Structure formats: C-alpha cells, structure tokens
Amino acid sequence: MASHSLGLTLHQAARQKGVQFARENEPADRNVQANGMNFHYLEWGQPGNPLIVMLHGGSQQAHSWDFVSLALSEEYHVIAMDQRGHGDSDWASDGDYTLEAHQGDIDAFVAALGLKGFHLIGHSMGGRNSYVWASRNPGVLKSLVIVDTGPVAQSRGRNRIQNFRELPDELDSFEEFADRVQEYTGRSREQTLGALKYSIRQRTDGKWSWKYDKLLRTPGRQGPAWSSEQLWEAVGKITCPTLVVRGGDSDIFADETMRQMQQVIPTCDTVTVPNAGHLVAGDNPVDFLVAVRAFYNGIS
C-alpha cells in the first residue's frame, strides 16, 4: 500500500484538530465555464441555506478550506473555488495571473452560477482578490472575511513563502513532497499525508509536481502588481460588514496593518487567532470558526 494512502481522512483529521461537526458531510466536485476557462469548485451543504464563497491562497486550492467547510456546511451552502492556475481549474493559456485577471474570473464565476447576496471569505491571494472585488461590487455581498492579508505584507514572511516556492518542484516520490510540506507547516505526518493528495499530482514520466502553474512559482512572471496605495484605495471602498482575521504567529500580516484596515473600512471587526501562522484556517480551525460564526451571528 502506498504511504500516501495512510493519511487521515478529512473527518479523522478534523476530529484530531478539534473541529466539531454532527454529520460527515462531503463536498461535490463541480465545474463551470467562466471567462473562457474551466473552473473547478467544491460545493458543500444545502443550496437553500445562506451562501458562503471561499477563495484560497496562492499555491493552494479549494480543499485548503475543508476543515472550515465541513463545519459550516451544516448551516450554510459553501462554494470553494479553485482559482486560475490552481488545483483542477485551467491554467491561464496566456500566462496572465494579474489581479485584474482574477477579478474577471470572479465576475464570470458569480455570473455563471447566478450567485447573489453571499458571504465572501478569502485568504492571502484570495483575500486580496476578495477585498478588491468587494470594493468594486457594493451592495452585492452580505459580508466579507479577509484572512491574513492586507495592502502591505511583511518582507520576512513574503521571502519565506517565495523561498519555499522556488525549491525544486519535480520530485521522485509523494513521500519527498510530504517531508517538505511537513517541515514547512509543522503538521503531523498523518495530517500532511491526508491533505497533500489535493496539492500535488503524478506526471506521466512518474515524477510528482505541484497542482499549480509553474509560472506562479517563477519570480516576476505573474504580471505587474498593484501598489500598496492602490490596494489601500480599494480597502477604503469596501461597504459591506467586514471581518479581518490575523494569525497570531503570522510573519506576513502585521497587527499594525490590521488595525489600519479597521480604521479605513467603515464597518469592520478584527480578530487575532492564536496558535496560527499565515495558514490560519488550517493551523487553528477551531478558533477561526469561533471568530467567523460570531461575526456572522452579529450581522444576521
């Protein structure tokens, strides 16, 4: 038996992390054509329930939200999207991974699925994409949750992530990737093995590689970035109730930046999740869920 089959199931891993859930819900894999591309997404829960749309961080995919989606799917209808170049969605044929390209994807994805009046949650790259989209679509969202990202990033964390992305990305075995991810995240072997299958794939030559476009692992190949001034301007245009979440051990998102966002966004709460780095919802899903549920209860 291959060692990667020995990892925990989602429900085992969630219980080990302390996530509370009454039913062993599973997501449905869906695909939709939008903005000239195929987008894969996970759908959880009942369509009649309040809707949450989730956008993952860079180099991740929709399954990065599994702990949170599992717990929330008992009360909410959850859609977690693989963004362009990630997971099982198409890679950009023209290599365009700019913020504007992502905005067009969200526009088209929302239109194709007929989504209205939903809650939006975004982490890191997905958080940036989310708050810029919210700034351009006043009155559409019920709420916005921005996770460990803002107009300014700390260089130490940014460099750490870039160094990880620049490591050799074609390895001989699943186990080599497991070693790398375990060292990077600090999670148990069982947790790592259970989740890694969604992030890497085996190629026809037998090598293993990441399930996201190699261009995204190459410095300077994502197109021109927005300036911090442009991003602050977008933050200032957000009108929906907003929660900004920071990992207590994050080396990406400074507490000072979070406090400044609270001042700039008209209706904004903030929370720092303890025992969590940049990967907040995966590091400490229990306290992340407590914060999100309290926020939702306060605006419903």
Short description:
This protein has 300 residues and is of the alpha/beta class. It has helices spanning 10-17, 66-72, 99-113, 125-136, 155-165, 174-185, 189-196, 228-235, 255-264, 280-283, 285-299, and strands at 28-34, 37-44, 51-55, 77-81, 119-123, 143-147, 170-171, 200-202, 208-210, 242-247, 268-273.
Describe the fold and architecture.
This protein has 300 residues and is an alpha/beta fold. It is 37% helix and 18% strand. It has 11 helices and 11 strands. It has helices spanning 10-17, 66-72, 99-113, 125-136, 155-165, 174-185, 189-196, 228-235, 255-264, 280-283, 285-299; strands spanning 28-34, 37-44, 51-55, 77-81, 119-123, 143-147, 170-171, 200-202, 208-210, 242-247, 268-273. The strands form 2 sheets. It has an 8-stranded mixed beta sheet, with helices on both faces. The protein has a 3-stranded antiparallel beta sheet with strand order 7-9-8. The relative contact order is 0.16.
List the helices and strands and how they pair.
Layout: H1 10-17, E1 28-34, E2 37-44, E3 51-55, H2 66-72, E4 77-81, H3 99-113, E5 119-123, H4 125-136, E6 143-147, H5 155-165, E7 170-171, H6 174-185, H7 189-196, E8 200-202, E9 208-210, H8 228-235, E10 242-247, H9 255-264, E11 268-273, H10 280-283, H11 285-299
Parallel strand pairs: 3-4, 3-5, 5-6, 6-10, 10-11
Antiparallel strand pairs: 1-2, 2-4, 7-9, 8-9
